[in-house]
Amino acid sequence: MGAELRLGPLLRYVEWPHGTRATVWVETGRPCTAEVRCADGAGGRTRTFQIAGHHYALVPVTGLTPGTSTPYDVLLDGRRVWPPAGSPFPPSTITTPGPGTAGPRLTFGSCRWAATGAEGRTPAGPDALGALAARLAADPGAERPDALLLLGDQVYADKPSKATRRWLAARRDLSDPPGAQVGDYEEYSRLYDESWGDPEVRWLLSTVPSLMMFDDHDLIDDWNTSAAWLDGMRAAPWWRERLLSGLMSYWVHQHLGNLTPAELAADPLYAAVRATPDGTEALRGFAAEADADPARARWSYRRDFGRTRLVMVDSRAGRVLDEEKRAVLGAQDVRWLEEQLLSGRADCDHLLVGSSLPWLLPPLVHDAERWSAALCGGVRGARWARRGETLRQASDLEHWAAFPASFDWLTGLLAEAAAGGDAPATVAVLSGDVHHAYVAEPERLPGATAAQVVQLTCSPMHQRIPYALRLGFRFGWSRAGRTLGRALARHGRTGPSSVAWRRTGGPWFGNQLMTLTLRGREARLRLEQARGGGVLTSVHERALTSASAAAGPPGGADDEAAAASATGTAADLAARPREGRPRTRPQDPRGARTRRRPRARPGDRSVTRPRGPGGVRAGARRAVRPPTRPNVELATTSEACLTWGCHRCRPQPKEPPHVRCPHAPDAVPALRAGRLPDRRRPAVPVARGAEAPRRARRRRRRRRLGPVRHLAVLVRGGDRTGRRRAGAAGPRHPQRGVRRLRRDGVRLLRRAPGAGPVPRAERR
Fold it and tell me: What is the pTM (predicted TM-score) of this model?
């Protein structure tokens, strides 16, 4: 009986841009020679190596033809074992880029819980990865990703499925620690067999190259949250074996395939493991050294797809947990990441940073993490420090924001990578972990940036999402959540964040995948969710780059053309494609919006304006948000001012928003009063309704108020339009607010959410 193929094959690496080499990972039942043989004559072979009684091989494939899609077979000791006989799937292929390939198509996501119920039911809903496999298998000519990025939680060591728990119960007594969780290398192997052994997913990983990075559930939930958490785990007798086995299994199943053939040839650990009949001790010693000193191991890596650079960052294993110098990355990893992001940017059209943890979170979560970090640092004393640590561990406050110094450093590094004449078209952070998907863009970064900076978060691929968690994340993105976050920041004395951002897409909940299509300097995003029957449905699609950014690298004439386009006429703006154009509302000659006033956001500046037609009372402070698009009606101005928020001149989107406009003291009052110089007469007619009476405007605003917001207005004593009395520190008529609450509160609370305001007849 010959050797059997236990797991795999996994296509892990395909060379860019030449497309002549690849690597294929397999696990076999016994020692043998593993061979990959392609239909066009390319191929390779190697001997297996042994870890803890399991046998693996990473087969190098050479001689591939660029720009082709070649079927391949896997042979063990000369016997064909893949594709299996009677397989319903198409042959597995190795697709290589050709000389004219403009850029890659990358699909990414995280958090895949490989659990199935009785009769194939999926307790976590339809699997997005399985749905992608079904689509590609049904239509071999469909759009196929050039790489699949798995950004963490490929296996759940602390939350195995029911089938795995039954297997664990047959192997040992679950009343002994760690209970119904994996404890050693053999049990980790069971997790990978379950996760990658699904027929559809197994075929998908055999034909689409994959890149991987671990997150906490690959070892245990909240891995390396804090020094107190680590001390508690090290006191558990089972933790050391769990940690070493987790790092060993990650090195074998995921990390080896992330490396290029050149990096594999230079890796001393890989050479030592292959040189001995059993490499268990060598690998176990390496894992012990990585636990004692995280600087001994670098799990981060870089992969180039032509002119697209992907840098995958380890944000878990290398953390510095000392409260006085907490950091996500150690000093060596910091220097390495700076070199990867800043060197050779002229050769990059797109710069991608893969991190299992998001950089930009919902604002409330971000402020809560900074607040807990400040409390644990002792800003409010020892008692609050203990409470902060309890909250940090109980609420999973463990992301970049929970390490304020690392968050600020990463923000500055991304801003530096996006600035200058050699900046790429986009700088994107790809993340998962938080069990929902969204798109966030910074509104303010240190310095002026030339590239489009964006946070793309996609999670989960297959996991349960409790309804309470959905409500919590929605609240975290809301204005009320921002207000609560600012209150936490004041209590923790954290100060303002180094960056302000806004959500430009989402949140979306469900099992989903994001696909980033990069063609030259153009970037396009698509989000797809898995529906019943294993079908992927597109729910969001947009361009990440504008036409000017995709036309060529910044600098010289291109910058001048972009500036001219930013200050163009109404006809020029109307001719632009809708993608990449910020939304706007018509404005009247006084500079006031005709529909509603801008909402205050973090980082906004408040200015004092005298009362004028359509204005506010003297002494009232009103938040002014920097406009995201030039004023179409005032496009005939001849003055040049690069300051944000100026109603007299052209705002440029790349200028820092904190610069004070020299025109503000005299120009803004003139605009509010309607006194405009002849050269600044509106180029288009005033929008209809701009001069509507104040009572009509209040009536329209009242109709937009929902019952919950109306109730909040009554409690704080404002008027029925939702506005607070100008110039007042608190409610102007608190007793009136109380009377209104007594009169309308019960009716408001009894109404269903979203039913709108209480009718006038009911209020009376």
Answer: 0.75
